[in-house]
Amino acid sequence: MSYEILERNIDALLRQSYRPALPTPLFRDRLRARFLSELERRRRPRRVGPRLALALAAALVLLLAALRFLAPGAPATRAELVASGAVALGFPDGTWRAADEEELFHGLQVEPPALTVVTPEARGLDLLVAAGRVALGTASELELFLEPAPPRARLVAGHAEFQHAAGRCPLVRGEVLVLTAPLPELVESGPAPAARQDLAPSTGPGSVTPTTAVAPRTVRGRVVRAADGEPLHSFTVGLLRERIGNATYPPVTRTFESADGSFEWRDTPAGQQRVFVHAAGFALAALGEHDLERGIELEARLEEGFTLEGRVQDGEGRPLLGALVVAEDEVPTDGLFFAGAQDTYWLPVQAVSGPDGRFTLRQVGPGAHVLRASLAGHAPTWKTLAQPGSEHVLTLPRGGTLVGRVTGADGGPLAQAEIVVVAMDQPSLPRTNFALARTDLEGRYRLEHLPPMTMIAVLIRGDRPDVRPLQMLEGAEVQVDFATPLSGLRLSGRLLDEEGRPLGLQNLGLFDRKEATWNSEWIASTTDREGRYLFEGLEPGDYLVFLIDELGRGLRCVDGLTLSDELFAHEHDIRVPHGQLEVRLRAAQGGVPVEGVALVLEYLEPSGGEHFSGLGLSGADGSFRFVQQRPGEYRLSAYPTDGRHGYRSGTRVTLGDEPVALALELPPGGSATLRVRARDGRPLARARVQFVAADGLAHNFSQVPETDAEGLFHAVGLVPGDYRVRVTQAGHRTLEQPFHFELGSAAVLELTLDPDSPAPR
Predict the structure, then answer these.
(1) What pTM, to 2 d.p., does this model score?
(2) pLDDT at residue 631 above 50?
(3) Which helix (H) or strand (E) holds 307?
(4) CATH 3.40.1190.10, applies to 670-753
(5) CA distance 135 to 132
């Protein structure tokens, strides 16, 4: 078998196989590239050995068979696809398939000769053609013909418009429109998604100069050494699509060899892309986000970077071999798997621990970093570094386990349902961290070695994901079941900006006003492209609506409403407010900015009540900006996390139409550790802890103020003074104990809870 024939067979096999667990063509391209690269490395000078070729081909077939087994069965007909909520794509040979997430988010590049597209009631699709794009609405059908030229489109049902540089042209049902126009200017139908609004034109070293001489969808440039401007001869360019919604795809990469450091990449992926450049021995260069529809020209100046050293160990201090260590803030992607991230994502700057657990991470950029270590059989861990140090120890816990069952409307099990578990309350982590699982034939799923933190479990169900918050503890097994709501109220509507334009692909959380906590009694919904949201299975009562950025990095209360049982279906549009508060934090001693301060904003209701409204974390300059807050009175509290400063609470502020700036000074402070036990001496996990100060205000010192699996709770940010420590747990009597804190004290406060007295007979 010749190498060329084998390569063609691999291409054919990949095209015919069903899409894998990560539904993107990029995955297939990378799989093919890795396979062929390994084959090229191992093959003999003249030909591939028959046994080796057959063995590798057999391994690839087994892998593809496994991926087909893991993927859910695809509906075979147009009607079944649309009925399942998918966008149906019909081809000239009579076959149909569903548009994948990549195509839904960034548009489908139409290929000759023809294509038929049918959209369901909840989804539209952008179709990319040479002269622009065709925006196909919901509940619509369109026929596209690219051969013979020129390209043409016929709207069969619904609505669509052709967008190009000269403007917009609506399609008329039943008529054929010729799709010819100058190259397109991308037109936004509304404000940019929340994840894009604050992006700067460039976020790393290098200069970008768009020029009309660059062909569309071409990246051209030169890569040099920053120290002396000398060209680099071998380097890799990565293109990462813009962040829309919660997608975390890997970048597309291409390696170049060049005597003068120049390169040209034609036919790049379409649309907004973030550009990265890396060469061996240098730090990763991030060159910002750019619209590649018109082409760009750039110069990348690469720095040599720094070296970080340390070791990875387990919970008992034993060294761990083979742990992956990265600086998470320098990973060119939006998300990472808890384990095995290197198998999916491009990680140009990484290290692997040796037999003694030691690692050397070279070529990291200057500034603060978040080190991340992961290893199969353990939960990942993170460590924030202010600057490179001598040695950094990363301890990997065993983690906890999530189990559950998924059932349908008939109460029967749903097999091959996809569950995504995401780290929720870690705004200090630069990337979204997650794991995937699929249900078995009984509808059951299991995910092991999850990090002990607040998380959300998401059942992927069309464009209406079902979300459950949970608190994972070390060594614990947590059960989260998903069932189709059979009863309860329904709430739907649109999410709108200040001017009434729809906000698509945004995360909304609906919190029970009386019962909800950060990790319980709330559900989530994601708006579709038209800004519509849906909540089902609700009880009558009072609710608060939160807008959530990137699964927990930022959230703010944007609305409140009451649901009565007089109606089954409630319709309510949410108009995002525009109040802004910028907070600047300085140390009272020295006046330096304080980083990593958790800021809690509470809304003070005119009736006298109050509720949580926003959460933030100060950056390296000691500042944070709350946005999209309702007009009214607020109370702001600041809780440092560095163990050197104390909290500030009770600061009142009024928000209205104009932005408000507030400066706070933080006094010296420290931390205390509590150990909570039962009367028989065993540690009590998940006991809730509060510190009540002398002024009567209660402080949690954590988003989830609960003891861990060892019964420990660490209160960071205490100021000197007297407190009453209140500890509660189901099945035990509430305990209140006086506590005096002084700077420099490091004692562990031992607390014992008595069981509840049995009820009298």
Answers:
(1) 0.57
(2) yes
(3) strand 306-314
(4) no
(5) 10
